[in-house]
Amino acid sequence: xxxxxxxxxxxxxxxxxxxxxxxxxxxxxxxxxxxxxxxxxxxxxxxxxxxxxxxxxxxxxxxxxxxxxxxxxxxxxxxxxxxxxxxxxxxxxxxxxxxxxxxxxxxxxxxxxxxxxxxxxxxxxxxxxxxxxxxxxxxx
Length: 140
Fold this sequence. Notes:
By secondary structure, the chain is of the alpha+beta class. It has a domain at 35-121: Jelly Rolls. 22% of the residues lie in helices and 38% in strands. The protein has helices at 21-27, 59-71, 88-98, and strands spanning 2-10, 16-19, 36-43, 48-54, 101-107, 110-111, 117-123, 131-139. Strands 1-8-3-5-6 form a 5-stranded antiparallel β-sheet, with helices on one face. A 3-stranded antiparallel β-sheet has the order 2-7-4, sandwiched between helices. 27% of the residues are buried.
C-alpha cells in the first residue's frame, strides 16, 4: 500500500462555489501511481466547505449560492455568534450542511469522478481569506 499527503493553499476566492478539481489533481500528482485507491480532500476551516457536483454548467454553482442564502439567511436576530459580521454564523451553518471533506475513488491513476462531476470549494464568507486543504491518497 502507498500513502501520499499534501497541503494545498488556495488563494482567497469570492463568495460562492468554485471548481477546484484541477488544483487538487495538480497538488498530488502521485495519484497517477495508484491503480486503485481513495483520495480524501479535507478543508481546515469552519466557514467554507467542500462538495462534489456539476462541473459543466456554471449556473449550478450560482443556484447553490442562491439556495443556501435563502436557506440560511444573514442578519437573523436569533444568532448569538454575530461579532464577526453578518455572514459569519450563516457561513458556519452552511459549512456544516455541506461538510468539510469529500472522498473520491482512484481508478487507473485518476480520480474516478463521473463525467459531469467536479470538486467544489464553497466559500461562505464575503472575505474568507486563503483556504487550506489537506489531500490524502492511498492505495495500490
